[in-house]
Design brief:
Elements lengths: L2 E5 L20 E5 L12 E6 L2 E6 L9 E8 L4 E8 L4 E4 L9 E8 L9 E5 L7 E9 L7 E3 L21 E2 L11 E11 L2 E6 L10 E9 L6 E7 L8 E3 L9 E11 L6 E2 L1 E12 L6
Antiparallel strand pairs: 1-2, 3-4, 4-7, 5-6, 5-8, 8-9, 10-20, 11-13, 12-19, 13-18, 14-17, 14-20, 15-16, 15-18
Length: 295
Amino acid sequence: MVKNVRYMIAATGLLACLTGCSDNLETFEVTGSGNAPVAIAQSSVTSEALPGQIKLSWTAPAEGDYDYLQIKYHDPRADEDVCLIASQYTTEMLIDETRARYGDYSFYFQTFNAAHEGSAVTEVKAQSGAAPSTQTEVSRTKVALTASQLSTNAQEPSEGPISNLVDGNVNNFFHTRWSSPQIDLPHYIQINFNEAHEDFAIKYYNRASSNTDGRVTVAELQISNDGENWETVETISGMPTSSGASYTSDFVTPGKSFTYFRFLVTSTSRGKYFHMAEFEFYDVEVEIYDPETME
């Protein structure tokens, strides 16, 4: 006799073996003759270690092999047993909130027919990829800069001295060389610090003028410890080009300390130069959460 049973995953008390299964799975049709279910072969199951996840995949069953599948495993992070149900048409499942630090996870596959009779249990071991860490900004503190700490490779001799970048007056401006002989981009602002810095952010103000040229559009944030060898730790773009607009960067975490910094302009709205009113540098306190070492 063919049976057609609507099986509600959230139902409780259906069978003792289903107690504790997920309450969040969908309803599906269970249609079958009640034949003995065919167990999942261990060799037919593969796993993929993803960041903080395990992807389980298995071969689709032949018609009539089974009507639904149960997967059980122990979640060491939550210290609880988990039971998941999949229909006969499901061939993969993504296990969330797993951790590489726990090593092997044991997954127990068991198939069932429409009469809820179970097959032998198949154990499959799989490992998770490392769960990604997250970084959160706690605070940022403006670093007091003096004109003597600033330098550039392209000062315009007729106007806009670099000292204007830190005079606190947005009506003054710094201008890189536009007069002949011009110097091709990139042009930079360099800061020689008196102490080491690490996590940071920058802010600057566009010059308040009707000029549409010379606005920064792409810049590299570079660090060094000797003022000779430079490393680009971030490239920024999409900055505002309107008069008097300000730009504030996200925080940057180079993973090392540095004592020299460059704001290296590689592209502008027009022209082989740039200009701006004020430039600010901030130390940033960053909180790191690593789920592989803490919960």
